[in-house]
């Protein structure tokens, strides 16, 4: 098997979480803004596509060089061994972006990269006519920053947040990978209660259930690289079967969500069923102000209406004040609230233990964290023969 330089892209603010996911999978990782670099084989391309919860895409870093002229871009792109991955009939659209560089015209950069790859493949496959591009999809991206060119091939296709279970959603849904990141930023363990009192289409509780059950998030979707000939026959099926077998459905989970809108609750239940976690998550129609619990040491994670979703500032203030009135007495619970409202703490009535800047799409938000008291430690049994002084 060949070894590749790979990169897992992620939303700004959660790349470190993606990096930690990769480290737990056994990779050496270098994290940069929005990216986590690592090396791996074809097997690792499959595993990371199936298992990474917070990443956007897995890409092969195929070339990296400096270019200040179109000739430089063409010649260095053509010099790369594209035939190692792209077959003669590959379909390879080229996307691009450029910033702070001499080559600032993105359409021109895309056209030149496309031409260079066509020339390389035509020479290698001895084609005098146009390449057919009738085969598998190999999306190429040319990204230029401060004259440094990075050429990548996308193995994921549509973003990894598209798990395949959410057929319906609300007006401003939280992406699945961001929801997973919110869960992973908490102190929640699967043996403790978890709740989202503004659950909308249920994404946060569903992602918590997937984590608690150790279900690979990419199991219910397909990837364009499944059709690539760099993989051994049956390799995708084998590794997907291994991922399915890793799920633990014997875990007892206490995960719930509620929303004031009964239509959203119906959508949440449908999405949970499609995700395969309907038996592990409870949804019910309930106004936030009426939420109450006798349970202890739980975790609340929510993405309440704000800015983009609820334009009436007075309604926002009322909701956040209700949130404070309901949550503040729950001393043993930890609360994590994502919002773009800078005055949230004032409305909530308490200063957050910690804040973390995150981007929900292009919208700057903060994760306001209120840490609950820790559960008492279970006393360890005394070693045999040891006595306890009174």
Automatic annotation (TrEMBL):
InterPro entries tied to this protein: DNA_methylase_N6_adenine_CS (IPR002052), RlmKL-like_Mtase (IPR000241), RlmL_1st (IPR054170), SAM-dependent_MTases_sf (IPR029063), THUMP_dom (IPR004114)
SUPFAM superfamilies on file: S-adenosyl-L-methionine-dependent methyltransferases
Keywords, in A-Z order: Methyltransferase, RNA-binding, Transferase
CDD domains, alphabetized: THUMP_AdoMetMT
Keyword ATP-binding: no
Gene3D superfamilies for the chain: 3.30.2130.30, Vaccinia Virus protein VP39 (3.40.50.150)
Keyword flag RNA-binding: yes
GO molecular function terms noted in the UniProt entry: RNA binding; rRNA (guanine-N2-)-methyltransferase activity; rRNA (guanine-N7-)-methyltransferase activity
One Pfam family recorded for the sequence: UPF0020
Domain THUMP: 44-155
PANTHER family reported in the protein's UniProt record: RIBOSOMAL RNA LARGE SUBUNIT METHYLTRANSFERASE K/L (PTHR47313), RIBOSOMAL RNA LARGE SUBUNIT METHYLTRANSFERASE K_L (PTHR47313:SF1)
Record's protein name: N-6 adenine-specific dna methylases signature
Species of provenance: Trichococcus ilyis
